[in-house]
Amino acid sequence: MTDSALMRIAAALERISPAPAEAPDFSRADAFVWHAAPDRLVPVTAINRVDMGLLVGINRARDILLENTLQFARGLPANNALLWGARGMGKSSLVKAVHAAVVAQGHPCKIVEVQREDLPSIGRLLTLLRAADHRFVLFCDDLSFSHDDQHYKSLKAVLDGGIEGRPENVVFYATSNRRHLMPRDMIENERSSAISPSEATEEKVSLSDRFGLWLGFHPCSQDEYLEMIRGYCAEWGLEIDPAEMRAEAIEWQATRGARSGRVAWQYFTDLAGRRGMRLD
Question: What is the pTM of this model?
Fold first, then answer.
Protein backbone atom coordinates (compact mmCIF):
# COMPACT_ATOMS: atom_id res chain seq x y z
CA MET A 1 0.00 0.00 0.00
CA THR A 2 1.38 3.38 -0.98
CA ASP A 3 2.07 6.24 1.43
CA SER A 4 -0.65 8.35 -0.20
CA ALA A 5 -3.23 5.61 0.37
CA LEU A 6 -2.20 5.33 4.02
CA MET A 7 -2.52 9.08 4.42
CA ARG A 8 -6.04 9.01 2.93
CA ILE A 9 -7.03 6.20 5.29
CA ALA A 10 -5.63 8.10 8.27
CA ALA A 11 -7.51 11.25 7.24
CA ALA A 12 -10.75 9.27 6.90
CA LEU A 13 -10.30 7.74 10.36
CA GLU A 14 -9.61 11.20 11.76
CA ARG A 15 -12.91 12.47 10.34
CA ILE A 16 -14.79 9.49 11.78
CA SER A 17 -13.19 9.79 15.21
CA PRO A 18 -11.56 13.21 15.60
CA ALA A 19 -9.08 13.96 18.33
CA PRO A 20 -10.52 15.39 21.57
CA ALA A 21 -11.11 19.14 21.43
CA GLU A 22 -8.60 21.37 23.15
CA ALA A 23 -9.83 23.79 25.79
CA PRO A 24 -9.73 27.40 24.60
CA ASP A 25 -8.32 30.31 26.54
CA PHE A 26 -11.37 30.98 28.72
CA SER A 27 -9.99 34.37 29.72
CA ARG A 28 -10.66 35.63 26.18
CA ALA A 29 -14.42 35.99 26.73
CA ASP A 30 -17.29 35.48 29.17
CA ALA A 31 -19.41 33.60 26.61
CA PHE A 32 -18.78 30.72 24.23
CA VAL A 33 -20.74 28.70 21.68
CA TRP A 34 -20.23 24.95 21.45
CA HIS A 35 -19.99 23.44 17.97
CA ALA A 36 -19.66 19.77 17.12
CA ALA A 37 -18.05 18.08 14.10
CA PRO A 38 -15.40 19.18 14.77
CA ASP A 39 -15.73 19.87 18.48
CA ARG A 40 -14.78 23.39 19.42
CA LEU A 41 -15.70 26.26 21.75
CA VAL A 42 -15.95 29.57 19.92
CA PRO A 43 -15.62 32.75 22.04
CA VAL A 44 -18.34 35.41 21.77
CA THR A 45 -16.98 38.89 22.41
CA ALA A 46 -20.27 40.80 21.93
CA ILE A 47 -23.24 39.09 23.60
CA ASN A 48 -26.72 39.84 22.27
CA ARG A 49 -28.62 40.74 25.46
CA VAL A 50 -30.71 43.40 27.16
CA ASP A 51 -30.34 44.97 30.59
CA MET A 52 -32.19 43.16 33.34
CA GLY A 53 -34.02 46.35 34.27
CA LEU A 54 -35.81 46.27 30.90
CA LEU A 55 -37.37 42.85 31.61
CA VAL A 56 -40.87 43.59 32.91
CA GLY A 57 -43.45 41.28 34.49
CA ILE A 58 -41.08 38.43 35.39
CA ASN A 59 -39.82 39.63 38.77
CA ARG A 60 -40.26 36.33 40.60
CA ALA A 61 -38.46 34.29 37.94
CA ARG A 62 -35.75 36.97 37.77
CA ASP A 63 -35.08 36.92 41.50
CA ILE A 64 -35.03 33.12 41.76
CA LEU A 65 -32.73 32.60 38.78
CA LEU A 66 -30.38 35.39 39.88
CA GLU A 67 -30.04 33.96 43.38
CA ASN A 68 -29.49 30.43 42.02
CA THR A 69 -26.80 31.68 39.62
CA LEU A 70 -25.07 33.71 42.34
CA GLN A 71 -24.97 30.61 44.55
CA PHE A 72 -23.41 28.64 41.73
CA ALA A 73 -20.88 31.37 40.88
CA ARG A 74 -19.81 31.49 44.55
CA GLY A 75 -19.11 27.74 44.54
CA LEU A 76 -22.27 26.84 46.47
CA PRO A 77 -24.87 24.21 45.52
CA ALA A 78 -27.26 25.29 42.75
CA ASN A 79 -30.00 23.72 40.64
CA ASN A 80 -30.42 23.18 36.92
CA ALA A 81 -33.26 25.42 35.72
CA LEU A 82 -36.02 25.06 33.13
CA LEU A 83 -37.61 28.34 32.01
CA TRP A 84 -40.86 27.45 30.27
CA GLY A 85 -44.01 29.19 29.09
CA ALA A 86 -45.34 31.90 26.82
CA ARG A 87 -43.42 32.87 23.71
CA GLY A 88 -41.54 36.16 23.66
CA MET A 89 -41.73 36.79 27.40
CA GLY A 90 -37.99 37.03 27.99
CA LYS A 91 -36.90 33.50 28.90
CA SER A 92 -33.63 33.50 26.97
CA SER A 93 -33.14 37.23 27.61
CA LEU A 94 -33.37 36.58 31.35
CA VAL A 95 -30.68 33.88 31.25
CA LYS A 96 -28.26 36.21 29.46
CA ALA A 97 -29.18 39.20 31.65
CA VAL A 98 -28.66 37.18 34.84
CA HIS A 99 -25.26 36.04 33.60
CA ALA A 100 -24.30 39.66 32.90
CA ALA A 101 -25.44 40.70 36.39
CA VAL A 102 -23.41 37.94 38.04
CA VAL A 103 -20.26 38.86 36.09
CA ALA A 104 -20.82 42.54 36.94
CA GLN A 105 -20.75 41.58 40.64
CA GLY A 106 -17.23 40.24 40.21
CA HIS A 107 -17.91 36.53 39.74
CA PRO A 108 -15.97 35.15 36.72
CA CYS A 109 -18.73 32.81 35.55
CA LYS A 110 -18.84 31.72 31.89
CA ILE A 111 -21.90 30.96 29.77
CA VAL A 112 -21.74 28.33 27.03
CA GLU A 113 -24.56 28.05 24.51
CA VAL A 114 -25.38 24.57 23.21
CA GLN A 115 -27.69 23.98 20.25
CA ARG A 116 -30.30 21.26 20.67
CA GLU A 117 -28.89 19.50 17.60
CA ASP A 118 -25.50 19.22 19.33
CA LEU A 119 -26.79 17.53 22.48
CA PRO A 120 -25.36 14.13 21.43
CA SER A 121 -21.88 15.66 21.79
CA ILE A 122 -22.52 17.14 25.21
CA GLY A 123 -20.66 14.37 27.02
CA ARG A 124 -17.47 15.45 25.28
CA LEU A 125 -18.17 19.07 26.23
CA LEU A 126 -18.60 18.11 29.89
CA THR A 127 -15.26 16.31 29.81
CA LEU A 128 -13.67 19.48 28.47
CA LEU A 129 -15.28 21.75 31.08
CA ARG A 130 -14.69 19.40 33.98
CA ALA A 131 -10.95 20.00 33.74
CA ALA A 132 -11.25 23.81 33.53
CA ASP A 133 -10.67 26.22 36.42
CA HIS A 134 -13.88 28.16 35.74
CA ARG A 135 -17.58 27.80 36.45
CA PHE A 136 -19.94 27.37 33.50
CA VAL A 137 -23.63 27.92 32.83
CA LEU A 138 -24.62 25.67 29.93
CA PHE A 139 -27.51 27.29 28.07
CA CYS A 140 -29.83 25.60 25.56
CA ASP A 141 -32.50 27.84 24.04
CA ASP A 142 -35.88 26.61 22.76
CA LEU A 143 -35.42 23.04 23.95
CA SER A 144 -38.09 20.51 22.94
CA PHE A 145 -38.35 16.97 21.60
CA SER A 146 -40.53 15.18 19.05
CA HIS A 147 -41.84 11.64 19.43
CA ASP A 148 -38.90 10.03 17.60
CA ASP A 149 -36.21 12.35 18.96
CA GLN A 150 -33.50 10.57 20.95
CA HIS A 151 -31.52 13.71 21.84
CA TYR A 152 -33.19 13.79 25.26
CA LYS A 153 -31.09 10.79 26.29
CA SER A 154 -27.94 12.84 25.81
CA LEU A 155 -29.39 15.58 28.01
CA LYS A 156 -29.44 13.20 30.96
CA ALA A 157 -25.64 13.39 30.99
CA VAL A 158 -26.01 17.02 32.05
CA LEU A 159 -28.96 16.64 34.40
CA ASP A 160 -27.94 13.39 36.10
CA GLY A 161 -24.31 13.08 35.10
CA GLY A 162 -24.22 9.30 34.77
CA ILE A 163 -21.60 7.40 36.73
CA GLU A 164 -19.24 10.38 36.90
CA GLY A 165 -21.89 12.81 38.08
CA ARG A 166 -22.45 16.29 36.70
CA PRO A 167 -19.27 18.35 36.94
CA GLU A 168 -19.29 20.50 40.07
CA ASN A 169 -18.40 23.54 37.96
CA VAL A 170 -21.32 23.16 35.52
CA VAL A 171 -25.02 24.03 35.77
CA PHE A 172 -27.59 23.70 32.99
CA TYR A 173 -30.27 26.25 32.03
CA ALA A 174 -32.81 25.58 29.28
CA THR A 175 -35.77 27.49 27.85
CA SER A 176 -38.82 25.91 26.28
CA ASN A 177 -42.40 26.73 25.37
CA ARG A 178 -43.36 23.34 26.85
CA ARG A 179 -43.22 22.45 30.50
CA HIS A 180 -42.60 18.76 29.72
CA LEU A 181 -40.37 19.47 26.70
CA MET A 182 -42.70 17.54 24.38
CA PRO A 183 -46.06 18.38 22.74
CA ARG A 184 -49.15 17.71 24.86
CA ASP A 185 -50.94 15.94 21.99
CA MET A 186 -47.98 13.59 21.65
CA ILE A 187 -48.14 12.76 25.36
CA GLU A 188 -51.86 12.05 25.18
CA ASN A 189 -51.48 10.00 21.97
CA GLU A 190 -48.78 7.76 23.46
CA ARG A 191 -50.81 7.27 26.63
CA SER A 192 -53.87 6.19 24.63
CA SER A 193 -52.13 3.92 22.12
CA ALA A 194 -49.25 2.31 24.01
CA ILE A 195 -49.43 -1.20 25.51
CA SER A 196 -48.17 0.22 28.81
CA PRO A 197 -49.48 3.81 28.73
CA SER A 198 -47.78 4.98 31.91
CA GLU A 199 -44.40 3.62 30.82
CA ALA A 200 -44.66 4.93 27.26
CA THR A 201 -44.19 8.55 28.27
CA GLU A 202 -42.53 8.20 31.66
CA GLU A 203 -38.97 8.47 30.36
CA LYS A 204 -39.53 11.60 28.30
CA VAL A 205 -42.01 13.40 30.55
CA SER A 206 -39.88 12.80 33.64
CA LEU A 207 -36.96 14.56 31.94
CA SER A 208 -38.35 17.93 33.05
CA ASP A 209 -38.52 16.58 36.62
CA ARG A 210 -34.74 16.45 36.61
CA PHE A 211 -34.58 20.25 36.62
CA GLY A 212 -34.45 21.52 40.19
CA LEU A 213 -36.07 24.83 39.21
CA TRP A 214 -39.19 25.26 37.08
CA LEU A 215 -39.77 28.92 36.28
CA GLY A 216 -43.04 29.67 34.48
CA PHE A 217 -43.54 32.60 32.10
CA HIS A 218 -47.06 33.78 31.28
CA PRO A 219 -48.57 36.28 28.81
CA CYS A 220 -48.24 39.88 29.98
CA SER A 221 -51.05 42.32 30.67
CA GLN A 222 -51.59 45.42 28.57
CA ASP A 223 -50.15 47.60 31.34
CA GLU A 224 -46.98 45.48 31.44
CA TYR A 225 -46.74 45.57 27.65
CA LEU A 226 -46.91 49.38 27.64
CA GLU A 227 -44.45 49.56 30.53
CA MET A 228 -41.94 47.57 28.47
CA ILE A 229 -42.20 50.07 25.62
CA ARG A 230 -41.84 53.03 27.97
CA GLY A 231 -38.71 51.38 29.37
CA TYR A 232 -37.22 51.03 25.90
CA CYS A 233 -38.04 54.66 25.11
CA ALA A 234 -36.36 55.82 28.32
CA GLU A 235 -33.30 53.61 27.77
CA TRP A 236 -32.66 54.99 24.28
CA GLY A 237 -33.87 58.52 24.95
CA LEU A 238 -36.71 58.40 22.43
CA GLU A 239 -39.33 61.04 23.17
CA ILE A 240 -42.93 60.48 22.09
CA ASP A 241 -46.32 61.74 23.24
CA PRO A 242 -47.66 59.12 25.72
CA ALA A 243 -51.12 59.09 24.15
CA GLU A 244 -49.65 58.62 20.67
CA MET A 245 -47.39 55.82 21.87
CA ARG A 246 -50.25 54.07 23.66
CA ALA A 247 -52.54 54.20 20.61
CA GLU A 248 -49.83 52.96 18.25
CA ALA A 249 -48.64 50.22 20.61
CA ILE A 250 -52.15 48.87 21.17
CA GLU A 251 -52.82 48.86 17.43
CA TRP A 252 -49.49 47.11 16.85
CA GLN A 253 -50.24 44.31 19.30
CA ALA A 254 -53.77 43.95 17.90
CA THR A 255 -52.37 43.31 14.43
CA ARG A 256 -50.02 40.69 15.89
CA GLY A 257 -52.76 39.03 17.92
CA ALA A 258 -50.56 38.85 21.00
CA ARG A 259 -48.83 40.86 23.72
CA SER A 260 -45.32 39.96 24.84
CA GLY A 261 -41.89 41.42 25.40
CA ARG A 262 -40.93 40.42 21.88
CA VAL A 263 -43.93 42.26 20.39
CA ALA A 264 -43.10 45.31 22.53
CA TRP A 265 -39.52 45.30 21.21
CA GLN A 266 -40.71 44.90 17.62
CA TYR A 267 -42.99 47.92 17.99
CA PHE A 268 -40.18 49.95 19.54
CA THR A 269 -37.82 48.93 16.71
CA ASP A 270 -40.36 50.15 14.18
CA LEU A 271 -40.88 53.37 16.14
CA ALA A 272 -37.13 54.04 16.38
CA GLY A 273 -36.73 53.42 12.66
CA ARG A 274 -39.51 55.87 11.79
CA ARG A 275 -37.87 58.45 14.03
CA GLY A 276 -34.45 57.95 12.41
CA MET A 277 -32.87 56.62 15.60
CA ARG A 278 -30.14 53.97 15.57
CA LEU A 279 -30.25 51.25 18.24
CA ASP A 280 -26.50 50.66 18.62
Answer: 0.83
